[in-house]
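Let's practice the habit of predicting before peeking. Look at the sequence and jot down your guess about where helices and strands might fall. Then scroll down.
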Amino acid sequence: MAKIRRGEKHKQIAEIILKAADDGRFLTVTEIHAGLPYGCAYGSLRKIIKLFEERGWVTKERAGMSVLIKPNMLLYQWFR
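Done guessing? Here is the structure:
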């Protein structure tokens, strides 16, 4: 299992997910990507979200043709 890191990019992605959840919304990868303050490839973002999922920080839920990223309590504990 990879080392758990909380780098600046991880924190920014977590904050986007948590802020939306606080507002009662869950985001797709595209919406998270649009909210990033820096440019990155979708593959890089998907890799970080996969890491979050492996750690139990987020859950993916199918919503029609989209997949929503839903934070779990562990994401709040690690990043707030």
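How did you do? The first helix runs from residue 8 to 22.
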